Amino acid sequence: MSGDDLRIKICGLTQVDEAAACLSAGADWIGLNFHADSPRFVTLARAAEIVAALPSPARAVGLFVDRPASEVSDIAATVGLSAVQLHGNEPPEHLQALDHLWIIKAFRLGRESDVRAMRNYLDQAGDLGRMPDAVLIDAHVDGLVGGTGTLVADALLRLLPAFPRLILAGGLTPGNVAQRLLRVRPWMADVASGVESSPGRKDLAKVRAFIHAAKSAK
Predict the structure, then answer these.
(1) Which of these, 61, 68, 65, 52, lies nearest to 20 by C-alpha position?
(2) What is the pTM of this model?
């Protein structure tokens, strides 16, 4: 995929002005983190403010970790989201329960067995008749579920099957994103900590540098 076709998601937004600025800088989506243990957690009220300020609510994605499907659906409806990211150990049945939403399923990879588990999950989802709309690859770090600043090992990237919509996350920065994209050729690049001044606060100079570097990857 060329840089012109690549999509960019800036995740972990907590401020209305920063979310709008990320889109103005060229990001396609922003991510809102509803995982209470995350330093990038947003309340429903703040998330609704952010979504209301965007040019389109379809440009926001809600991130959830091991929450009941009914809760995910309710929060999406309350905030005005049409896309969600399941970033925990949600069973494939959740995809069916959330069929009215556009779903990203995240997989945290730290060893070869994680890749096998991902394949098994997707096989089960296929058997149930509801695959995720996109697959996100992040690095596995014990005790953390995202925003770790850790790269996915090259050896694991080489084991990935072909996905029509692969989202690459995990330790991306303005300095390494072009090189990583050339290895994987994903549909979208996802960044959180790599463009921050502190957890949940985006450095817009880094955001612009990241987008420029990603779009320049050939």
Answers:
(1) 52
(2) 0.94
28 given a catalytic annotation = no
Q: Single out the catalytic residue among 4, 99, 133, 138.
A: 138
pLDDT tens, the chain, 218 aa long: 445 689 999 999 999 999 999 999 999 999 999 999 999 999 999 999 999 999 999 999 999 999 999 999 999 999 999 999 999 999 999 999 999 999 999 999 999 999 999 999 999 999 999 999 999 999 876 655 555 678 999 999 999 988 989 999 999 999 999 999 999 999 999 999 999 999 999 999 999 999 999 999 87
138 is catalytic: yes
Spot the catalytic one: 4, 11, 74, 127.
11
Domains of the chain in start order, with CATH, are 7-216 (3.20.20.70)
Q: Residue 124 and residue 181: Cα distance in Å, rounded?
A: 29
Q: Which of 82, 85, 108 is nearest to 95 (CA)?
A: 85
Q: Closest Cα partner for 96 from 108, 107, 106, 105?
A: 105
